[in-house]
Amino acid sequence: MTDAAPPAGRLDLTLDRFVAAPLANVWRAWTEPELIKQWFTPRPWLTVDCIIDLRPGGRFFTRMRGPDGTEHPNDGVFLEVVPQQRLVFTDTLLPGWRPAPKPFFTAILSFAAKDGGTQYRAQALHKDDADREAHEKMGFHDGWATAAQQMEELAASLGGGTR
Predict the structure, then answer these.
(1) Which residues contact 99 (CB under 8 A, 6 or more apart)?
(2) Which residues contact 97 (CB under 8 A, 6 or more apart)?
(3) In the beta sheet, which residues pair with residue 157?
(4) Using CA atoms, how far apart are residues 102 and 10, in angstroms rounded to an integer?
(5) Distance CA 45, CA 10 (A)
(6) Cβ atoms within 10 A of the Cβ of 82, count?
(7) 118 neighbors 112 (Cβ within 8 angstroms)
(8) Which residues contact residue 54 at a Cβ distance below 8 angstroms, ignoring those fewer than 6 apart?
(9) What pTM did the predictor assign?
(10) Where are the alpha helices (DSSP H) in the chain?
(11) Which residues have a Cβ under 8 Å from the Cβ of 69 and sit 6 or more positions away?
């Protein structure tokens, strides 16, 4: 287990952002299903379902719904969980360590308390250039930045920050 995120490589997409909300609240926003459903997809998209089994090998499932009603389920597992520091999940594996039929990426999320808020880093690691380019064309930079802004607003509204 390591505390540092790996350096970005050519197959990675990265978002680095200071979040003006306490670390504990940002962690909650990422690890509580009812909170994820409030911010995880850029509006007007919705996250209509979320399952979190917060442990290595535990399920991380979201179902997103577009404005036209089309739904996009995403299923995977957590690979690493370090409370209030790091989350790693992938859609390469499914619950029970079953190989996924169409793996796309692995996410490494890093969190650190900083100046009364949270330094947040999200890396999306892809198996090849085609998947990285597809993710970028899907709107990774704008989409993940918008979702991070929504997460920040929610996390700031939670108050306190201790849990």
Answers:
(1) 92, 93
(2) 57, 77
(3) none
(4) 21
(5) 29
(6) 13
(7) yes
(8) 31, 78, 81
(9) 0.90
(10) 23-31, 33-39, 129-137, 140-157
(11) none
Q: What is the pLDDT of residues 141-152, one digit of tens each?
A: 999 999 999 999
How far apart (Å, rounded) are the C-alpha atoms in residues 143 and 136?
10
Question: How many residues are recorded in the chain?
Answer: 163
Q: Tell me which H or E stretch contains 63.
A: strand 59-65
Q: Closest by alpha carbon to 91, among 80, 102, 76? A: 76
Determine the Cα–Cα distance for residues 41 and 74; give it in Å rounded to an integer. 12
Check residue 97 and report its DSSP letter: G
What tens digit of pLDDT does each residue of 68-121 get?
A: 999 999 999 999 999 999 999 999 999 999 999 999 999 999 999 999 999 999
Integer Cα distance of 31 and 23 in angstroms: 12
Token couple for 145: 């930045």
